[in-house]
Specification:
The chain has 246 residues and is of the alpha+beta class. 34% of the residues lie in helices and 11% in strands. The radius of gyration is 25 Å and the shape is elongated.
Length: 246
């Protein structure tokens, strides 16, 4: 007598269950991996801001003043003319001293981890000529917890601010093209971008730095800008150590 073997394949339902399990397993691996990649980029961006700040202070230790912004979005050399003397109709010195990090002059990286150029705003009194302990702090920068209120600033009276626009919204590519702002609720990010398009002093000096959030429901909306600044105490201490002050 010959025995016949019967083989049984997977039913469509069983295949669907298997695919669902595989999808869930892959999802549980990929989501944390994506989070890790983004956290690493954030750390790299913060390190770039720190390195840029050190380069700015190093420039001051050599030249006796802070560097002016880059000539343009495509030219990383610092402005050859003082901010106060630039013939830009409708702009004042503070607006002219607000732009891009002069990456070529400083010898720092041009782009953050998301392919965006770092922004830079500096007080003309500290960038147009050598400064001293008595140089006026008029038109220094404030860093605020929100665009809506700056009654209790994060820091005030600093001569320069450096900013990365982060992974989402705003920013400029290396070719000078602008990244699209795809949100209508990120008002704090909008405020930071506006500072770099200012034309008069009153609109150029307050920047927002707060906890990163993807929520559109929080005050100021979603926010992923990274902001750094040059503290007066650190700047002056380095200048004294380099023999540039007093």
């Amino acid at each position: 007598m010959r025995l016949t073997r019967h083989t049984r394949g997977f039913t469509l339902v069983e295949l669907a269950v298997v695919l669902l399990v595989v999808t869930l397993l892959l999802g549980s691996v990929l989501v944390p991996l994506t989070t890790q990649v983004e956290q690493r980029k954030m750390a790299e961006a913060q390190q770039l801001l720190d390195d840029t700040r050190e380069a700015i202070i190093g420039f001051a230790m050599i030249n006796g003043r802070l560097p002016r912004p880059a000539t343009s979005a495509t030219d990383g050399q610092e402005l050859s003319s003082t901010c106060a003397s630039l013939p830009d109709p409708g702009k004042d010195a503070v607006a002219n001293c607000t732009g891009f990090v002069p990456w070529a002059t400083l010898g720092v990286a041009r782009l953050d981890p998301w392919g965006k150029q770092l922004r830079y705003s500096v007080s003309p009194g500290f960038a147009d000529s050598a400064f001293t302990f008595s140089t006026s702090t008029t038109n220094h920068k404030r860093v605020c917890p929100s665009a809506a209120s700056c009654t209790t600033p994060v820091v005030s009276g600093v001569p320069a601010v450096i900013l990365s626009h982060g992974p989402e919204n705003w920013g400029y590519r290396d070719d000078g093209g602008q990244f699209v702002d795809s949100s209508t609720t990120n008002t704090d990010e909008d405020a930071n971008d506006t500072k770099f398009k200012c034309t008069v002093t009153a609109n150029c000096n307050d920047f927002v730095s707060r906890t990163i959030s993807k929520s559109t429901a929080v005050a100021g909306g979603e926010f992923d800008d990274l902001v750094s600044w040059v503290p007066n105490s650190l700047l002056f201490n380095r200048m004294v150590a380099a023999g540039r002050l007093p």
